[in-house]
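Tokens in:
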């Protein structure tokens, strides 16, 4: 916010751009929230089944619930931040992309897809997620490792254990 010669606040270009970014964030969060609700409604029509015998609507229900919860968190965060000023980091984030990181993440995804038949699906995706987190700038080793291992375990539980969906196995017999 800039001030006029009489010291009254005047909206500057950065304030207007910041407001636009926040409106777009809020709209995006609401669209994702509506998508999550649609997933839940569609899943219930398909039949959910139980944890022991899931039906065709089970996985869409899980996706819908996760999407609704994440979107609600995003909506509340957007509303909470709408009253605060943009920091320099927010303005930088809303600006240009860090293309080396974008290309790095895409390259890691391509390598994971190429090597999945060797490493196995879960192992390959977990290693790839760890590498993507590092390329994207997540600091330290603990957080990316926890993220990768947690993702692998949850993926195995959902697909192999609960849904009985066999995932591609690598050369060494790992999933």
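Residues out:
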């Amino acid at each position: 916010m800039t001030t006029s010669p009489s010291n009254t606040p005047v909206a500057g270009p950065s304030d207007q751009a910041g407001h636009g970014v926040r409106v777009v964030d809020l709209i995006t969060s609401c669209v994702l929230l509506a998508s999550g609700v649609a997933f839940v409604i569609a899943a219930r029509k398909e039949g959910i089944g139980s944890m022991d015998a899931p039906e065709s609507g089970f996985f869409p229900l899980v996706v819908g619930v996760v999407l609704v919860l994440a979107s609600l968190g995003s909506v509340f965060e957007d509303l909470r931040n709408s009253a605060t000023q943009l920091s320099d980091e927010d303005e930088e984030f809303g600006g240009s992309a860090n293309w080396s990181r974008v290309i790095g993440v895409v390259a890691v995804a391509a390598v994971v897809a190429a090597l999945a038949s060797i490493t196995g699906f879960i192992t390959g995706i977990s290693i790839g997620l760890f590498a993507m987190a590092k390329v994207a700038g997540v600091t330290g080793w603990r957080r990316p490792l926890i993220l990768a291992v947690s993702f692998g375990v949850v993926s195995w539980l959902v697909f192999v254990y609960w849904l009985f969906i066999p995932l591609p196995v690598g050369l060494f017999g790992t999933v």
